[in-house]
Description:
Shape: rod-shaped
Largest sheet: 45 strands, mixed
Distance between the termini: 165 Å
Structural class: mainly beta
Number of strands: 45
Radius of gyration: 51 Å
Strand content: over 45%
Helix content: under 10%
Amino acid sequence: MRRRLKQAALAVLLLAALALVALNVALNAPYASRAFSPHPDRFRIDWRSAWSVVPGHVHLRGLRLEKRTTRVAWTLTVDRLSGRIDLPALLHRDFHVLEVRGEGVRSELQRRDVAGPARPRQRGTAGRWTLRFDRIVLDHVRQLRFSGLRVVGDGRAEGGLRIALGGVFRLAPSRLRMAGAELAMGSRILTRHLDLTANASLGPYVPRQHPGLEAWDFVSGALAATGELEDLPWLAAGAGSRRKPGELAATLRIAGGRLEPGSRLRVAADGPRPASSFALTAAIVAAPGAHLSIDVATRGLNAGGSPARPVLQVADLELATATPETRLRQLILAVRSRRPVVSTSAPVMADVRAAGVRIDAPSSRLALRATLDRAAARVDLGALLARDVVAEGLEVDGAKVALELGHASRARSATPEPWGVRLDGARLTRIHEVALGDLRLAGEGSAETSLSLDRAGTLAVPRATVSMAGGRLEIAGRPAASALGVELAVHLDPVIAGPDRGRQLLRATSGDGTLRGQVVSLGFLTPYLEKTPWLKIAGQGAFTADLRLEHGRFAAGSRLAISSDPVVATILASQASGRGTLEVGVEPGPAGPRTAMRLRFDRFGLADLRRADHPPYLRGRGLSIVAIAAKPVDLGDPVQDFDATLDLPEAEVPDLAVYDSLLPAEAGLSILGGRGRARLHLQASTASRRASGSTTLRAEGARLRFQNLDLEGRLTLRAPLSTPDIMGHRFDLAGTRLEVADVTYRDATGDREPPPPGWWARGELSRGSLLWGDPLSLRGEARVTMKDSGPLLTLFAQKSRLLRWFEDALRVEGVTATASVRLDPGLVVIDDLRATGGSLEVRSRMRFARQQRRGELYLRYGRLAAGVELRDGERTLQLRHPLEWFESAGRTP
Length: 893
C-alpha cells in the first residue's frame, strides 16, 4: 500500500514537473504571445523571456504591451516582471493575475494620424480574452510620455486594471509617485527636480465607444507637482547673465474628467535680464459657476524667429481669461491640436494688454515691421495655438507701421509655418508713422480697421479709415508733402499671395478720401509721365485732393489741385518756371471716364536749360500744358498713353539776341537784338510719338547781321511744326513764312550810306526741316519776294569798286528769288539762289564756315553783266565772260 502511495506521489510529481516544463516551454514558444494578441495591429503583448518555478508564479523579462487605435498609440515596457496567475481561469480565456510586480517601467502615449478608410468595427465578444490585474506594483518607473511631453525619473506606481479585449476597460484606483524627475519637451528640459504625486482611476468604459481623448471623460483623481523651471525660450536673453530657477507648482483635482474647484497651476520665472519675467496662474474657481481662470504677466517677451532676431518683442504683457470649460479632454484637445476650445459656440477670448511691442515679420507674402507703444485687445487663445492671431476690439495707442508688399529675400522668406491674422474693430490712435513700400507718412493720426490674412497668404480688409493732421509724406526717402491733412476710407477685396502681389493689392483697393497740405515735390508725377521724357513737371505749393478709388483706378470726380510758386515744366531743352496751378482729375469723356492733367502758368519765364546763366528768352502769362489719357489713372499700371497739348497764347521776347546761341557759331550769322511777341501751339501723342503745331514770332526793331550786312526792321515768322518722333527733335517746317518790313540795311565794313528805310521781303519754305539742337540745324528750299536785291548786292560789292550801272540795278523793284538754305553747326550755305525782276537777273552761291568764307555772284542788268568773287572778305570783280566764270566756279569743289 505504501509502495502504491509512493508511486502515485511520484507520478503526481512527475506530472507536475512535466506540466511545469510544458508551461515554461509554452511561455517561451513563439505562439504564446500570439494567443494573447489575436489582433496584433490593435493590441499586442510580447516578452523576451519567461519562466515559472512554482505553478501560477511567472517571471518575465522585456515585457512590452502595445495598444493602437486610429487616434492614439499606447506603449508600456517593463524590464522585469513577476506575477501570480490564476491558472484555472485560463481555461475560460481569462488571464487573471492576482498580483504582479515590475521594475524598469516606461510608458508612452502618442497621437496617431492614420490615413485611409476607418477600420470596420467587429461585433460580438465571444471567444475574446479578459485581462485582470488585481494588484500591480511597479518599481523604478523610468519614463512617462504623453504626446510631446516626457517625464523621466525613478518612481513607483501601484494599482490594478481590467481589460476585456474589444470590450470594457477599467483602471482601479492607482497611485504614482516620482521624486527628482525631469519634465522635457523633445530635447529641451523644461523642469528639473520635479516631485510628482498622482492618484487616479479610469473607467469602466468601452474604448471602442469612446476612442482617443474621450477616455479622459472617465478619469477621476488628484495630482500634485512641484519643480524648478529652466530658462523659458520666450524671455529676452542677456549676454553673460544669470538667474535663479523658476517655479512650477500644480494641484489638480479631477472628477469624471472635469477639473474641480481648488485645482491650481502656477508657473513663474525670472528671465536672464533684470527686466524679463514670466508668471502664469490657472485655477478652477467655484463661483459664479465652476470655470477655468488664467492670468499671465510677462516682461521681456520674445517669440518667433531666432534669438538674435525675434518676430515679436513685448516689454510688458498681461493676459486674463476665463472659460466655463473644465473638461480635461477639451482642454487637451485645444492645446494638442492647436484648435479653439469647442465646448461652447464662443471661442475662449482673453483680455490682453501690452506695452513696448515690436514686430519684425518678414515673409514672401507680406513683410511687416511695427512698434506699438501700448495695445489692448480680446484675443482668441485657441486660435493663437493654431498660429492664428484673432483679436477683437484692438486698441493701439502710439504706433509705427511699415509694410512691404514685394518679395522678401530668399533667406528671410522660408517661413515653415506662416501665421494668420484677423483683426475685428481695431482702432489705432497717435499713429506716428505708416510706411507702405516706398511711401512713408509721418505725423499724428488715427485709424480704424478690420482685416484678415490667412496662412495661405490671402489678405482682405473689409474696411479701414485713416485720419491725420499735420503729416509729412516721403517717397523713396525724399520729402513729397508737409502739413498734410488726410481723411481716407478704403476697403480691400481678398487678394491671394502671388508673384504680382503689389499690383493685385492695388487692383483690390477701393474707397475715397480727401487730402490737404503743402507739396514739397511734384516728383510723384514722374511714373505717370514715363512716356513723355520731353515733358517733366516739378514744383511745390499748397494742394487739395478729393479722391475716389475703384479697384485701384481713380473714379470720375477724383481731383487733385496744386497751386505752386514756382512750378517748373521742362519741355524738350527748355524750362518754364513761375506761378501756376496744376489740376489732375478724372472727368467724363466721349468713350467713358478719362484722366486730364492741366498745368496753367499765371506768369512764367521760359529759359534754355543748356544755358543756365542766360535770362529767360520768353516771358508771359497763360502758358498751359494739357495731357488727356483715355482711361482713369490706374495705380497698378500708372504708365499709359495720352495726348498732350502745349498752348502759349502770347509771350514777350525781351531780347531776340538770346536766340543767337542757337545759330551756327563763326559762320557770320548772328542775331544782335530786338524785342518781340511769340505764340506757340503744340500737340503730341505718346502712342504714336508724333507731334504737330505752329509757332508765330513778331518782332519790332529786330537786328541781324549776315557777314558784312547789318539789317534792322520789323519781322514776322509763322511756322507750322510737324514731327514723326518728338524725341528725335526733328521738325518739318514746310509752309513756314517769313516777312520783314521797314528794313534798313547797310554794309558794316564799307562807307556807303544806307538806303532809306522801307525795304521788305516775303519768303516761304516749300520744303524744310529743323533739327532742334545746340546749335540747331536747318534744311530748306525757299521762294522769296523782295522789294529789290539791294541787301544781296551789298554782300558782294563796296562803293569804291561798284560799276556805275550797279546803281540802276539796285533800284529794280519786285524781285522774286528761289534758293536752297542749309544751316549746320559752324556752317551757313545758300545754294543756287536765283533772283529776277524786270531786266535784272541775279544768281549766287554762298558758303560760310569757321575756316572758309566764300561766295560767287552773277549779275545781269539788261545787256550788262558782271561777276563778283568773295574769298574771306576779299572781293574780285569778274567782267570777262562772267556767266561762264560763274558756272565754272560752281563746278569747282
